[in-house]
Amino acid sequence: MRHESAPAKLAVIIPSFGRKELLTRLLGHLERQSRLPDEVIISTPDASHVEPYGGTRLRVSYVFGRQGLAAQRNQALEYALGRFDVITFFDDDFLPASTYLECLLDAFRDHPGWAVIMGNVILDGAKGIGLTFEESAAALVAFEAGPAPALRTVEHPGAYGCNMSFRSRHVGAVRFDERLALYGWQEDIDFTSQLRRNGRIIWLSTLAGVHLGNKSGRVSGLRFGYSQIVNPAYLIRKGTMSVRFGLGLACRNLVANAARSIWPESHIDRRGRLRGNLLGLYHIVKGNIEPEYILNL
Predict the structure, then answer these.
(1) How far apart are CA 134 and CA 227, in angstroms?
(2) Helix, strand, coil percentages for the chain (3-state, nearest 5)
């Protein structure tokens, strides 16, 4: 961070794929921030994934050329490093409360020992069928009209990628692991856990937002199920995920997919995920821990 007398510069990075209408609505929503970002950087494979920004309050830039969440995060990160003090990643289906960025910069200023901050997801559509933009915006209005949440902090092993922020000077050579192909499951934990050497990774209650959990642009059930098993094994071997955390994550997903494959939810391909889980286990037993194998499925 800069000296107190110099305002910190903040960039918001939004990777996106196949959601240009939702992305446009998110940009309109970001115009409500009490502290506007100094720049919003949109990262997509090409210009077909975006619509022209029609507003006047945001400075919006675009980086094109690479596909896959980790790759898109990296191409925007490399564009932003050296120009901003704080970098925030938002998913293209995450709506922050109007004071989010203001509170974020205050937190980094007041807590020099915090390396990574993630916010309080007050409603997460990823845990169900997903939320509409209107439902999410209404939830934020209700939240902001209510009493301010009590200040609470929780230390985490890594940050939830739908909304995570860090000091750019800590990044150095750390990048998102592009072997975690396509949806890049757990790429957020892998990246942010490496920043722990610079300070704490904190969940902050007063930093609020809603995650729509939009289901478009996701990978197939088979591919995702494979990643649910192989990605934790890969990160355990890499040393960026603890054995306890990784095994717990993989086992919970395997059990959930097996149990619910009998009567699967309409919005989740449980049987595809279970097939992917079992294929991943088979490959691990054979000694093949290659998360990029999903490109062959």
Answers:
(1) 31
(2) 40, 20, 40
Q: How far is CA 265 from the centre of its chain?
A: 24
Q: What is the pLDDT of residues 142-173, one digit of tens each?
A: 999 988 888 999 999 899 889 999 999 999 99
Of how many residues is the chain composed? 297
Contact between residue 51 and residue 20 where contact means Cβ atoms under 8 Å apart: yes
Q: How many domains does the chain have?
A: 2
39 plus 62 within the same structural domain: yes
Q: Which of 66-75, 109-118, 129-138 has the lowest mean pLDDT?
A: 129-138
pLDDT tens profile 109-127: 999 999 999 999 998 888 8
Amino acid code (one letter) for 227: S
Q: Are 46 and 104 part of one and the same domain?
A: yes
276 burial type by CB count under 10 A (0-12 exposed, 13-18 middle, 19+ buried)? buried
CA distance 142 to 86: 29
Does residue 245 form part of some domain? Answer: yes
Dihedral-angle region of residue 213 (phi above 0 means left; psi in -120 to 50 means alpha; beta otherwise): left
Reference 163, options 199, 132, 124, 110; nearest CA is 124
Query: Other CB atoms closer than 10 Å to residue 68's CB: what's the count?
Result: 21
* pLDDT band at residue 190 under the 50/70/90 scheme: very high
Site of tokens 């059990």: 255
Residues 283 and 182 in one domain: no
The model's pTM is 0.92
Please name which of 160, 168, 165 lies closest in space to residue 189, comparing C-alpha atoms.
Answer: 160
